[in-house]
Amino acid sequence: MRFSFLCFLFATYCLLTAGQSVKTKASRPDASLERQLQAAITGFRGDVGIYVQNLRTGKTVEINADTLFPTASTIKVPIQCGLFDKIHKGELKYDQELIYKDSLHYDDGIVGSLKDGTKLPLSEVVMLMETVSDNTGSLWCQALAGGGASINQWLEVNGFHQTRVNSRTPGREANRKQYGWGQTTPREMAQLLTYIRQGNAVSPDASEEMYRNLGRQYWDNDGLSQLPPEVKTACKNGAVNQARSEVVLVHAPHGEYVYCVMTKNQKDESWVRSNEGFQLLRTIGALLWHHFEPKSTWKPAEGYEKWW
Questions:
Q1: Do the Cβ atoms of 82 and 146 come closer than 8 Å?
Q2: Which of 244, 232, 237 is nearest to 219 (CA)?
Q3: What's the pLDDT at 23?
Q4: 45, 267 Cβ separation under 8 angstroms
Q5: Which CATH class is domain 22-292?
Q6: 83, pLDDT greater than 90
Q7: pTM for this structure?
Q8: What backbone phi and psi angles, to 5 degrees, belong to 30?
Q9: Which residues, including other chains, have CB under 8 Å from residue 87's CB and lie 6 or more apart?
Q10: Residue 21's closest CA among 66, 73, 83, 64?
Q11: Which residue of 40, 91, 111, 194 could cross-link 137, Cys pair, CB 3.0 to 4.6 Å?
Q12: Which residues cross the membrane (predicted)?
């Protein structure tokens, strides 16, 4: 009887704590940094949302941090979580062999350029989803994760109530029309990355592998370009015509910090390096680095931009 009662208490505890949010130091505003960020976004032709947290001190900046924005490719972070949940439950194997079919084709990225019948491991498709942001591979992973509804259920249970997959998700057609593939807030996307970093997403071992994937970012010419190349980061970025986004966790020498910048309704819809949204991501990436590492004299090498 006593054992049954203890089991009941443990089960109740698990249910109550299943959706707890990210564990960090108690947050408190960083007024100085907020003034700098407000100045940086002044005059931007579009809407901007920013969430920053110093994971060592707990200091935060919140600018439209709970406003919904299009995820663009940052939705591939929750897709990965949903997929690893299936792997953790034994419904998939990370090293299982997949067979590419032309029916999966979405665009001519790496996966979409494969020949019908090509064999490759699931782990490679996941790596391509996070590293080069391969769209065909990402939609394949979304389907293997049980679809958008399954991923959204994982998000809800784990305390991410605003982040959702919209595309190819029944009942979310109106959301897709407004936000595209997915929707989130700067706060939730930054906290999801922190959740993974802390080993809380699915399981500690799953979190570790997901974090490794997020640390191999090919698209490093935005905010990441403003950080010294030897500094470890985990990152995912995204872009559609009227929106740019980037979520980054930086392993800075004086303490880790995480931030997410998102835009929408941009007037500048160009796809050149000088696009206002891309410029903003670089401006904020540099501003945060020098705020948290004030003694750093590092800056991008002269002539760096010619590569882009």
A1: yes
A2: 237
A3: 53
A4: yes
A5: alpha beta
A6: yes
A7: 0.91
A8: -105, 90
A9: 93, 94, 206
A10: 66
A11: 111
A12: none
